[in-house]
Automatic annotation (TrEMBL):
Pfam families: adh_short. Gene3D superfamilies: NAD(P)-binding Rossmann-like Domain (3.40.50.720). SUPFAM superfamilies: NAD(P)-binding Rossmann-fold domains. Coiled coil: none annotated. Keywords: Oxidoreductase. The keyword Oxidoreductase applies. This is SDR family oxidoreductase. One of its GO terms (cellular component) is membrane. InterPro entries: NAD(P)-bd_dom_sf, SDR_fam. It comes from Streptomyces boncukensis.
Amino acid sequence: MTTALITGATAGIGAAFARRLAHDGHDVVLVARSAERLREHATELHDRHGVEASVLTADLSREEGIAAVEERLGDRARPVDLLVNNAGFGLQGRYLEVPLADELTMLRVHCEAVLRLTTAAVPVMRERRRGGVVNVASVAAFVPRGTYGASKAWVVQFTQGVARDMGGTGVRLMVLCPGFVRTEFHQRAGMDTGGVPGWMWLDADRVVDAGLRDLARGKSLSLPDPRYKALMGAAKLVPRGMLSRVSSTTGRRFGPK
Ligand SMILES: NC(=O)c1ccc[n+]([C@@H]2O[C@H](COP(=O)([O-])OP(=O)(O)OC[C@H]3O[C@@H](n4cnc5c(N)ncnc54)[C@H](OP(=O)(O)O)[C@@H]3O)[C@@H](O)[C@H]2O)c1
C-alpha cells in the first residue's frame, strides 16, 4: 500500500488524479481550500475503493497553508510515495489589467508552493530510495503568455532540473503539460472558451492516465495527447516573435471575456 498526496484535489485534473490513484489501491491525502468538497470526495473514494482517504484543508497561497502541507510531507512515520502538485488557477485579463496582488498570489501557488512541497517530499523519498513527484504545468509554458505561462515555464524548468539531479536515487520527477482540459479552470477565471475548437479539449481522466503512463516510463516531461505533441512540435519551428503574436491573438480570442 502506498500513499499519494494531491493538491487541488476538489476538482478537475486533481480530482481525476485522486480517482485514478484510489482506483489503483493507493491511499490518498486530498489537499485544497474547500473542506466540505474535500470531505465528500474522500468519503466517495474510501467507499468505492476501500482505500484510506484523508483530507488536509490548506490554502496554498498562504504561509500557514504551505507549512501545513510541508509538515505532512515531512512526516517520516506516514511517508508519502507520490506527490502531485496540481493546484492552480488562471486570471482574467492581460498584463496591467490584472491586479499585481493576484499575479503574486499566482506565483506563490504555482511556484513557491511547488518548490516548497517538492523540497519537503523529496528528502524523505530519497531516504527510502523510492517515490515520485508530478508537477502539473501546461502547454502555456512553451509560449509567451504573461505570468501564467511564465509560472508554468518555471515549473517545467524546475522539475526537469531536479529530475536530473535525482537520477539514480530512486526518486522520479515529471512535469505534466496538458492543453485545454474540461475542468472548472476557465469558468473560475471568468474566461469565455466559446471559441476554442472542440478538438482542442482534453478529458481530465485521460490526461491523468497518459501522465501516469509517462511517469512509469521514466519520462521527465509529459505532453499527454498526440494533438498537442504535434502542435508543440510545430511551435518549435515558428520564430519566437511570430509565436508571441499568435499566442497574444489566440489569448484574446480564447481568454478573458
Ligand atoms: N484546465 C485546463 O485547461 C488546464 C490546462 C493546462 C494546465 N492546467 C493546470 O492544471 C491544474 C489544475 O487545474 P484544473 O484545470 O483542474 O482547474 P480546476 O478545475 O479549477 O481545479 C483547481 C484545483 O486547485 C485548487 N486550488 C486553487 N487554488 C488553490 C489554493 N490557493 N490552495 C489550494 N488549492 C487551490 C482548487 O480547489 P479549491 O478551490 O477547493 O481550493 C481545485 O481543486 C492547474 O495547475 C492548471 O494551471 C489546466
